[in-house]
């Protein structure tokens, strides 16, 4: 397989899995195993930014309404809660990253994160279903969503979207679509900041491996286009369906990783 084709496939896979609660990290691990090449962290983070750009495009009207409607109390309150969630992620996540507190992106921890995360999703959604389907984003929800994003960063395979969406459901935002929208909007500054930080680290590292910018650009575009389709589909899907099929898929994928891929990979 050519390098450009491999980059294209990885970009498509990232776009499809970044927002579905199935762990893009686990899927990229499998893909890179079969491709036979481990991509640098910069590649993975920047193509995540392509997927986040897709979210920006999907929610462009919502973002514009928030930006131009800050005089309205509801918009101002919502924007401040987005800022708090992002601020918590940055304030807690940056020291965690600098301290190197992160499990390795190898089969065993990712597989177990997929399995345990799937079980957590089923239990969390059932508990949330017993509560009123509130669309309200509280300050508690904002703080917990910020912390959930940090946890997802420490434990590869957890899925940032899954961790944050289900903590929001349990914390009081009982309507799936409202919790999902808030988490996706928080993800925009979060992932753009992570990508910018990774790029800065790469540029300042004199010993960093050279980057194939053509491959990175192709994967970025692929992730953006497929991410746009995936987000639009998911937002429609969750209006009438639960997240349970994704939970089952995570568990099956986690077991498959443990059984078929080398432990040390």
Automatic annotation (TrEMBL):
EC number: 3.6.1.27
InterPro entries for this protein: UppP
Pfam family, one: BacA
Transmembrane segments: 41-59, 79-98, 110-129, 141-170, 182-204, 216-235, 247-263
Enzyme type, top EC level: hydrolase
GO MF term set: undecaprenyl-diphosphatase activity
The entry's keywords: Antibiotic resistance, Cell membrane, Cell shape, Cell wall biogenesis/degradation, Hydrolase, Membrane, Peptidoglycan synthesis, Transmembrane, Transmembrane helix
Subcellular location: Cell membrane
Its membrane topology: Multi-pass membrane protein
Origin superkingdom: Bacteria
Reactions mediated catalytically: di-trans,octa-cis-undecaprenyl diphosphate + H2O = di-trans,octa-cis-undecaprenyl phosphate + phosphate + H(+)
The keyword Cell membrane appears for this protein: yes
Main location: membrane
HAMAP family: Undec_diphosphatase
Its biological purpose: Catalyzes the dephosphorylation of undecaprenyl diphosphate (UPP). Confers resistance to bacitracin.
NCBIfam families in alphabetical order: PRK00281.1-4
Family per similarity comment: Belongs to the UppP family.
Note: Bacitracin is thought to be involved in the inhibition of peptidoglycan synthesis by sequestering undecaprenyl diphosphate, thereby reducing the pool of lipid carrier available.
The name this protein goes by in its record: Undecaprenyl-diphosphatase
Species whose genome carries this gene: Lysobacter zhanggongensis
